[in-house]
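Suppose you are handed only these lines of text.
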Amino acid sequence: MGENWRKEYLRSLPAVDAVVTVYKRTHNGGTYPHTLLVQAVQEVVEQLRQQVLTSREEKDLLAVGLGTDEVAVRVATWLSQIEQPSLRRVINATGTVLHTNLGRAPLALAATEAMAQASRYCNLEMDLVQGTRGSRHAHVEKLLMQLTGAEAACVVNNNAAAVLLALNTLAAGKKVIVSRGELVEIGGSFRIPDVMAAGGAHLVEVGTTNKTHLDDYRRAVDEDTALLLKVHTSNYKVVGFTATVKMAEMVKLGQEVGLPVMEDIGSGLLLDLARYGLEKEPLVAERISAGVDVLTVSGDKLLGGPQAGIIVGKRVFVEQIKKNQLMRALRPDKVTLAALEATLRIYLTGHPLQQIPVLAMLSMSADTLRQRANMLAQSIRERAEGKLTVDVREDVSFVGGGAMPLTQLPTTVVAIRPTQVALQEYVERLRTGTPALVGRVQDDWLLLDPRTIRDTEEEEVILCLM
Ligand SMILES: *Cc1c(COP(=O)(O)O)cnc(C)c1O
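From them, the structure of the protein bound to pyridoxal-5'-phosphate can be written out as follows.
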């Protein structure tokens, strides 16, 4: 019986038509399509109905306006929210360079310009000199050959697709031999055994988790074997007593038993970064010169380009891969190819360490980072007028994207704590602002790592923080 108030509230929810009328009157007739407006009103009224139904006491509802005018105001807010793009720019202050949730590699300026050009009509599959049909792979194949020393190359949607397509082409219905120490899972959904099954190949595991020898591979070869596969353990390391087979040895075995050798290398490193304090990662060109037949690589990890899967290797195999029917389902679009071409061209003729953001961030010196952190902290302090406590401290940045899991790059961060609101509330406001700002929360401080903040973004960071 004590629920009479609830019935009263339910009865006083306004009719959809009435709200539509009020909205149109108060918004110059309304600029949105009528059906969208009706949908907005229905959703808003339904949300209010649910609120009434789930409130425990009448006083929870006292502040909720159910008048037609008040509901029309809510409708206006609902409509302005659907105008906000879902995919928005984020300033990455986390210090994780290849942040998978933030879209991995930020692209070089030349790549974004090439994307805009290619987004119109372009010669994606036309040879402009001959006036005949061309191949979409041609725009990057030559560059990839020059940069890696490979005989041929093609590109698909991502590295997972590259592995799937290569396995399907080279080993469908046949056996593929892999070390037990290399059955990796990347990012929760890419697992070598599952990709193998999806490609129609049969997995033969050899060796143990920590040690696999050449003889383990040799003994497993039989007449149903189609391929020897190595997988780079990008996101973990087996330490202690370990043994893996070097590519050159695998290639020798492959020649001995008459089987191709494939490697999924993941990261796609084209330049040696060891002198910047980064772990030794395999270089693409190194593997090609060791004689690997097929190599698959990510476009948006250490290569610093768009999401893509790159297949390089011996011409005879790459040509088979290009002709696989699945290529049609996995091929990249013109915008991706444009970004990849522009990125690769920087490696060939430009200044990759300056022009490719991922490489610039990874090679930034500790001195530069300290200076940038100090200057940023200074500006924030001056503008915050006591609303923020600002500190500077030594910390570490990470490579991310499942690459170089053990590398901790020394950095200096700006540590911030709001004095008038709770940290949680402040961080949420920054995350939902325009642009969004995402940092790292640690021990009640918000940490901003200048490594992943472009210097052109520093002024925006300060504005976001105020
Ligand atoms: C990252 C990675 C993949 C998956 O690549 P995507 O481009 O994300 O599809 C596959 N294999 C290895 C070894 C990797 O490091």
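What can we learn from it? Residues 158-160, 184, 186, 190, 231-232, 234, 264, 266-267, 298, 309, 402 surround pyridoxal-5'-phosphate (CB under 6 Å). The chain has 19 helices and 18 strands.
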